[in-house]
Design goal:
Blueprint (H helix, E strand, L loop, with lengths): L10 E2 L11 H13 L4 E6 L1 H6 L6 E6 L5 H5 L3 E4 L2 E5 L4 E4 L1 H8 L4 H5 L6 E6 L4 H10 L3 E6 L9 H18 L5 E6 L5
Parallel strand pairs: 1-9, 2-3, 2-9, 3-7, 7-8
Antiparallel strand pairs: 4-5, 5-6
Length: about 190
């Protein structure tokens, strides 16, 4: 992306010092404020980042890589109660949450509601060896979306062939959008550890 002359910033949920400690909506607002500094923008979002990115999409073109379930569907089943609060623990990620965060996760939008916020064209990639059925739901809810299923891709698109296909389509999108100054914002989705 940077070789094509675009500025590139990365927003990572796993590097957030506040994720889990405040309202999920406040976390989205924090990210939204960061993205506004770079509008117009092309946001490349992965997993939970896709769910968040759709809430920022008024002036942003989106590329969603293996979009995830809603925040409520991810967080709530993996909360472990402890005396001082709740801890998110899915076996891979673990972090402390607050009552404010849990309340906002319970009240968060469904995938269908979030997809309804998309105003720009959206490109969606599904990974055949992961949760591509969820990616297909996103595509079904966004009429102006393009969908690419990569049957041999895992959730992280770690195979060289799959990564090359994704980067090729992203490159074509950037060239097409070149008429308008765009800042590409890779949006990682990994939860805090």
């Amino acid at each position: 992306v940077e070789k094509k002359g675009y500025s590139c910033i990365t927003i990572r949920l796993d590097e957030s010092k506040t994720f889990g400690s405040q309202s999920f909506l406040k976390e989205v607002k924090r990210i939204q404020n960061e993205v506004k500094q770079h509008n117009p923008a092309l946001i490349i979002a992965h997993s939970l980042g896709a769910y968040v990115a759709l809430q920022l999409s008024d002036n942003c073109s989106l590329i969603l890589l293996e979009p995830s379930l809603s925040i409520a569907d991810i967080i709530l089943p993996n909360l472990k109660q402890v005396s001082e609060g709740a801890v998110y623990d899915d076996g891979k990620y673990k972090f402390q949450t607050t009552p404010e965060f849990i309340k906002s996760a319970k009240a968060s939008s469904t995938i269908k509601e979030v997809c309804g916020k998309a105003r720009q064209e959206v490109v969606i990639f599904g990974a055949g060896k992961a949760g591509y059925k969820i990616a297909e739901k996103y595509h079904g809810y966004i009429p102006h979306s393009q969908y690419f299923l990569l049957p041999n891709a895992d959730h992280k698109f770690s195979g060289a062939t799959e990564r090359k296909k994704v980067l090729s389509i992203i490159g074509k999108r950037i060239v097409r959008d070149r008429r308008t100054p765009v800042r590409a914002i890779p949006f990682a989705s990994t939860l805090p550890r």
